[in-house]
Amino acid sequence: MATKRSSSAPSSTRAAARGDDDDRVITPKTVIRPVVPAAKPIKAAYFNRELSWLAFNRRVLEQAQDEKHPLLERVKFLAIVSSNLDEFFEIRVAGIIQQFDSGVTEPSVDGLGPKESLRRIHSVVASLVEDQYACWHHRLMPALAAEGIVFKTAAELNASELGWVTAYFHEQIHPVLTPLALDQSHPFPQLGNKTLNVVVSLESPEEEGAESLVAILPVPRILPRLVQLTPGDAGPQRFVFLSEIIKLCAGEFFPGYRVTGAHSFRVTRNSDLYIDEEEAENLLKKIEEELRNLRRGAAVRLEIEEGVNDTIFTTLCEHLDLSHEYVFRLNGPINLLRLMSLAEIDRPDLKFPPFTPANASPLRDAGRIFETLREQDVLLHHPYDSFQPVIDFVEQAARDPQVFAIKQTLYRTSGDSPIVRALIEASRNGKQVTALVELKARFDEANNIQWARQLEEAGVHVVYGLIGHKTHCKCSLVVRREGKRMHRYAHLGTGNYNPKTARLYTDLSYFTAREELTADAAALFNTLTGFSREPEFNHLLVAPYNLHRRLQELIQRETANAAAGRPARIMAKMNSLVDKVTIDNLYAASRAGVQIDLIVRGVCCLVPGVRGLSENIRVRSIVNRFLEHARAFYFENDGEEPLIFAGSADWMPRNFFRRVEVVYPIRDPALRRWMVDELFTLELQDNEFARLLHPNGGYLPVPRDPAVPPFSAQGYFVAAALQRAAAAD
Q1: Which H helix or E strand runs over 489?
Q2: Binning pLDDT at 50, 70 and 90, where does residue 34 land?
Q3: Catalytic residue, candidates 472, 491, 548, 629
Q4: Cα–Cα distance for residue pair 210/256, rounded to 1 Å
Q5: C-beta of residue 384 within 8 angstroms of C-beta of residue 358
Q6: Contact between residue 123 and residue 112 where contact means Cβ atoms under 8 Å apart
Q7: First to last CA, the chain
């Protein structure tokens, strides 16, 4: 999407997750004072953050159950449920367990203390996991079999398959597995986080009545968890889980003993890094050390197959120091995330239709990027619009002899990052290149350490941002000499500089040469790389400085307008809504009559639709083919032009106060119209994949008159992108 800085609007086919009250620099010594809501809500209600997140994962499971999706895509959704639960236990549950073990009893804003939160989490997770495995056994497996994709247990193998599996075991598995006995002379082994293990019960045929022996077979990650039987044969594709093969052949490791039971299991551990940056003399080395320690983190969950005997079950729980409420006995394969490999099957009829993002924006001519941006702002909507212009922006800056400096934030990027390559090339071309690399990007720490070292070796100035704050903003700034003056060009985004996730996540990319915005972007980089006790941002909303305060002011302005009988409206799209001050201000706005529409993909602690509190607030979530990731905000601003923003920040305390975030205004008239008429309006019209949040915490489908056809916002954006691409050919 793009326009010249004129009144002409683009056609629809072109347009197609604490408080602070000042702008002071936030240092480890700064005391942050909360913003007070405009009016204290009466009997305010809040959803529990963890239970709200589990409701989101339930919506992901619903996609696996939904027969409107292609079959292999449903399998992927089922795998994502497992991946989400892993991170939930590693981070969120681990944190609540630490609170409970530390004696914390004070309830959070929802009224639940750690003990009650854990009890409810266990109940909800148990139900979710039961439904997840029911979906696998009773819906997906039969449907896959009907399409010639068959899963077999060891007991279901015929003679030919059994011979093939036995040979595969001896050739591929037996050489790399090491049995570990459990007895007085062998200590309980250190089991890695989320690694597959098989616990084996043994008896000696010559010692009748003797106590059973127990051993564990840890399975290296290098072995594929899903094995295709006799690949290349005609007929149905047959698969068996690696754990089934190991259990079948486990006796090969214990000659002279009889195997009486074999069950797979895995342990989930606390994976949250704790880094005291003030005490860490070398942050990079400290994070590397902590990454090595993560595999030894405290156990927070045990998943084990049903049928294991009570003695082994008790032994595992005792050695892992886990009470039984953190144990899940599973009716089926451990770790359904491994089903993700089915996406590699060449069955296009069982997948979403191929979609190639449209590279039809004014920036498609990479050689004229800077000339184009001097004339117009450009807004891209990923993945419908190609991410290539973002790459081209940095690559052209690296090669352009008139470019003197490039400044770039990197939170998460791809394994073979063209952005990183371009920064290295720019440095080698003699340009001043600065990269803000966030070493503490969760689960990407090792990747980012690798990038930081490569950049430093190439002469890039690598900076790790503010102490105590993750650098989460998405900014790229280019300084270019044009004639006798220096001009700045900026890319401001809602998503990471990652070409791979840019094809899977919905995000916004805003390119501009507007002096007021690029000057603020330059001030941001100067603040992050140098010293600034009182940074001033006149147009960008930047956390942890002015974002929270300005957001509350904007909500309160709408409240005042509604109270005075003037038009008032708030629309906001984000991943998560958790911040209590913001929620309280939204409640106050609702009571004043502000009409509020929130599109919140994941966690939402606000309770909508409560009479006298939030009856004017509607909350919906869209879970579909692409992960909704963009953050965008609209304020009616009666008497003046509506205020429209996009950026990297969710409405959460961590984004407001513990991260560096940037929210930027959309200034171009036509781009603003697109934001309102298409992005917000169409997502609020989605009646196919949107779910409405109800006061009881349930998410239900949007009511739809049978005469009204189903409408998917993502489906519309895909069709519009294909139209733009066809028109550009």
Answers
A1: strand 485-493
A2: very low
A3: 472
A4: 14
A5: yes
A6: no
A7: 17
Query: 610 with 583: CB under 8 angstroms?
Result: no
404 phi and psi angles, rounded to 5 deg: -100, -30
pLDDT, mean over the chain: 88
Which of 57-71, 277-291, 547-561, 668-682 shows the lowest per-residue confidence on average (mean pLDDT)?
Answer: 277-291
Say whether 485 sits in a helix, a strand or coil.
strand
In angstroms, the CA 77 to CA 557 distance is: 41
Cα 36 to the center of its chain, rounded Å: 30
pLDDT value, residue 301: 96
Residue 324 DSSP class: G
Confidence at 223, pLDDT banded by 50, 70, 90: very high
Question: Which amino acid makes up residue 205?
Answer: P
289-343: pLDDT as tens digits = 554 444 458 899 999 999 998 989 999 999 999 988 899 999 989 999 999 999 9
Q: Strand, coil or helix: what is 530?
A: coil
- How far apart CA 642 and CA 672 sit, in angstroms, is 9
Indicate if the pLDDT at residue 630 is higher than 70. yes
Q: Give the residue among 267, 284, 661 at the shortest CA–CA distance from 448.
A: 284
Output 38 or 144, whichever has higher pLDDT.
144
Q: What confidence score (pLDDT) does residue 287 get?
A: 45
Q: Which of 528, 529, 548, 545 is closest to 537 using CA atoms?
A: 545
Q: Is 69 a catalytic residue?
A: no
Helix, strand, coil proportions of the chain in percent (round to 5)? 40, 20, 40
The answer to whether the beta carbons of residues 710 and 700 sit under 8 Å apart is no
What residues pair up with 573 in beta bridges, in sequence order?
Answer: 599, 632
Q: Is 672 helix (H, G, I), strand (E, B) or coil?
A: helix
Domains of the chain: 26-46+542-728 (3.30.870.10), 91-350 (3.30.1840.10), 362-538 (3.30.870.10)
Angle subtended by helix axes 49-65 and 71-87, to nearest 10: 160
Tokens of 536: 């001033």
**Cα 69–70–74 angle (5° rounding)?**
70
Provide the token pair at 603. Answer: 């966690």
Instruction: Please list, in sequence order, all residues whose beta carbon lies within 8 angstroms of the beta carbon of residue 145, skipping any fewer than 6 positions away.
Output: 151, 236
Q: Which of 62, 16, 60, 63 has the alpha carbon at shortest distance from 682?
A: 16
Closest CA to 658 of 671, 667, 649: 649
634/378 Cα distance (integer angstroms): 19
Higher pLDDT, residue 281 or 461: 461
Estimate to the nearest angstrom the gap between the alpha carbon of 230 and the chain centroid: 37
Give the pLDDT of residue 379: 98
Low-confidence winner among 6-20, 176-190, 330-344, 703-717 (lowest mean pLDDT): 6-20
Say if CB 314 and CB 324 are below 8 A apart. no
- Residue 714: the pLDDT is 98
- Beta-carbon neighbour count of residue 501 at 10 Å? 19
Give this prediction's pTM. Answer: 0.89
Q: What mean pLDDT comes out for the span 509-529? A: 95
Structure tokens belonging to residue 281: 């003399």
For residues 628, 630, 631 and 637, what is the CA-based torsion angle, rounded to 10 degrees?
A: -110
Confidence of residue 626 (pLDDT cuts 50, 70, 90): very high
pLDDT at 282 over 80: no
Question: DSSP states of 277-295 as a string?
Answer: TTT-SSHHHHHHHHHHHHT
Q: How many residues are recorded in the chain?
A: 729
Q: Max Cα separation, the chain? A: 94
Highest mean pLDDT among 40-44, 165-169, 463-467: 165-169
The rounded distance, in Å, linking the Cα atoms of 115 and 135 is 30
